[in-house]
Amino acid sequence: MTASAPVDPTSTDAWKQLASIAGGFAPDLRGWFASDAGRADRYTFQAADLTIDLSKNLLTDEILALLLQVARDIDVPGRFQAMIAGEHINVTEDRAVLHTALRRPKDGAGLVPPKGFVVDGQDIDADVHATLDKVYAFADKVRSGQWTGVTGKRIQTVVNIGIGGSDLGPVMVYEALKPYVQAGLEVRFVSNIDPTDVYEKTAGLDPETTLFIVASKTFGTLETLTNARLAREWLWNQLLGTGAINDTDTARSDAVAKHFVAVSTALDKVAAFGIDPENAFGFWDWVGGRFSIDSAIGTSVVIAIGPDNWREVLSGFHAIDEHMRTAPLEQNVPVLMGLLNVWYSNFLKAQSHAVLPYAQYLHRFPAYLQQLTMESNGKSVRWDGSPATTDTGEVFWGEPGTNGQHAFYQLLHQGTRMVPADFIAVANPAHALKDEAGDGAAVEPGQDVHALFMANFFAQTKALAFGKTEDEVRAEGTDESVVPARTFPGNRPTTSILAPALTPSVVGQLIALYEHIVFTQGTIWGIDSFDQWGVELGKQLALQITPAVQGDADALQSQDSSTKALIAKYLDLRN
Ligand code: F6P
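The line above is the sequence of Glucose-6-phosphate isomerase; the predicted structure tokens follow.
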């Protein structure tokens, strides 16, 4: 499919004015806050349950107005409407991009597009809800013990086998919602083709109470299919080893039927693997892998937390979709955050962006976002095939606070590079522990430990924004020789995101927020955020190199000299 040329953002007047401001830009968060009592208020926004404070960003009203003008010139809202209506905005794969349809309420009045809309001949809402109902029914059976393994025992462990979007989403949400997991159920996640992963994740499991979910959109991913075969082998060997099943083809296939289900868009391939299509949950090519956690790819999580909680996750997603669709641009949080990222990447030359959850249960959120953001926006051609006209996708990374404070925050505070950072926290922790003893010095007995944690959250964004001047350092009686080393420049941009608690809905809201930030940035850059051709070459070469690694001399000879020498060394080192 050919697509019309995107509007080049760099050709707009607003972009040119931003470039001229950036040329002599001297941010002054201290001064801006001192002279403008309304700054925090004006730059704090609400999206569903999320309170988002943008005021500690390197932003003025003039810059914000120009960024918003860029969004209007590019027509970000128009492209979002096109996306949710099912236009094929994934042009290189000629596909609709409809992850927003995965979370439309079943009985929603006033939905846009209206309930029952049809895309490429498919009644999207009907299919989404038929699949959801099937997933919910299955989850209920597993949770109630109605679904049993081949020897009649109820399932205690679910092992999700998938990679990329078929792993990162489920594992992140499972970890985020651990307090909602049904007692007696555990989910483990196998992704890496390093056999250590299957080995470790099956270690100690009882095969009679283990259910494997093979999650793969294409059901053609080497890692996942290899791991699924290893898991099937493990299951058979374990069951045969204890005499739980006889060594017959029928017993083996009965075991697979009771211990393997699949999630895929390719149900024919699922059947070829030996999994009954009755035990398979489908989705569609208009769900991108990294946008698929709210499709049947989330089945492992639905089993763990139950359909009611999952409905809440979906309603959180939908609330942010609605915010993105309806909020005026000036208050549209995903658009504003996407524009800020454009400001930092394209004008202030930031290379990376940190995401720092102050909520331990969100510890996999940065890893999840790495695929969402970088597989989406790490592109150098635009959707019409022409070169990108400006830098695209920043490097996203992060770790939970406060761990990061004792690792890499040094660079955030005093390094030579600017790293914009999103700080994410919740007001009410799942476990409100008190330090009854205190430490006899700084920490009072009975201290609310979450408050201590949050004090760090607030302190870090404050320190990054306002720094510490040489005079302030001197005033502490610091020896002159170390004053420069102990000075903090400040003006390090941060966004603070605060939610009441890490509920299922809030988790959905956070994911949708970042999905639409990605969308905003990709739209401004004119790139197709929904393909991922950049992962293909490595996959092709791995297949081509495999014979060489397995000792085929001709295949080894055909490699470049570095690769050849490395493989030869590897073969040499093998016992
Ligand atoms: O290789 C990249 C990728 O295609 C991702 O986009 C996707 O999430 C992942 O592989 C897994 O693909 P699948 O779900 O088809 O196994």
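Note on the example: The chain has three domains: 44-58+342-506, 119-307, 537-574. Residues 44-58+342-506 form a domain with the Rossmann fold fold (CATH 3.40.50.10490).
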